[in-house]
Model the fold of this input.
Amino acid sequence: MANITPPRYVKQVLITLQSRGFLAYLVGGCVRDMILGVHPQDWDVCTSALPDEVRGLFPHTAPTGIRHGTVTVLIHSHSVEVTTFRSDGSYADHRHPEAVSFVGDLTSDLARRDFTMNAIALPPDGLIADPFGGVEDIEKGIIRCVGEPERRYEEDALRMFRALRFSARLGFALEEKTLSAIYSKAPLAASLSAERVRDEIEKMLLTSRPQILLTAIEAGLLDRYLIRRKDDPCSELIRITAMPKKALPRWAALCAILERRGWIDSAHDFLTALRLDGRTVRCCSECCELLHTSPPRTTKEWKKLLNRYGVDTASCAAQCYDALIGGRSRDALRAVLKSGECFSVRHLAVTGDDLVELGLRGKELGEMLNFLLDYVMDYPENNRRELLLQLVRGTEEN
Ligand code: ATP
Ligand code: MG
Done:
């Protein structure tokens, strides 16, 4: 932690609060990351000041989560989330506390947080506050719920996903009860919105250990989205690590594995239920369809695939072929794309208008364009306007 210090604008927020007599601490992910020696992505502050008091202290603020006591302070073109110490009331729906109450002390605020490693507070000067032994757990590489895991998951079922996600991201082990309670409380995950589940799955997919999803599946966290369990997909999920760390190809690989094993009917249904965007749904569905066949063997086959499915799906499919069945499809596709050779009527050296001038119309015109495309895919060096026009005239005369 010694060599990571918060940036000046963060210190300014802490000191402004402190100078007005309020308690103010860095808290949550940023403290955990500092202890781990990782630069935090964002900086969260907790304070004894009430939201209106925070708004009164800084000229530029946004009431981003005011109901939960969060005010975003905009400072020197950065933003810092400042949250009033709070404790959460009862949770009726395993998702949201019915009411939050602002409290005066830090320990109650830390007690409502999910894991010990996320329940550490650091004042601008002075001693770290760590009532649940978070520092020791970080040092040991352990994720442990603050309090009794079953009860904490009952309050908020998303914590089960968060536990697995942090474990995958940090390479930490889950403390025994923190893990076993995921198995016993997994049915509560059905109450979470598809969007939140989707975001958690995507975050897990983008870690270096996407195979953590096996634990999520085994525990039953994804039961609402899976149809049956013929086989164990375990040995295969690890193959996702061979995919680029990008959402689209990793979703595609996940779908391909689950589909192959009969855990989902189709990528389309699975991803639509999880509210993925249209491009991802289309691309992953096409990719799964392609994976039912063997990879293209020739340059021309790749061009045909590119013509039919476009670059997004072709790239995804090439990555999946390599990761899931082996081979060098990515290299082959890269070579085709780099060559700049024509694989679509849009790249032909003649246009539909040229053919209209030569008297072609409707179906005939379409067929001619396809004929020219097929020809140019075989003879890329002949994708020249005069030559193609000559070819059209010749074909017409015959
Ligand atoms: P990341 O680096 O992924 O942002 P983070 O720990 O900062 O990790 P956030 O989702 O930004 O995670 O949440 C900030 C803090 O708020 C957490 O560290 C934790 O203390 C608390 N927190 C967030 N979500 C929950 C939750 N569902 N239950 C309890 N505490 C939570
Ligand atoms: Mg965060």
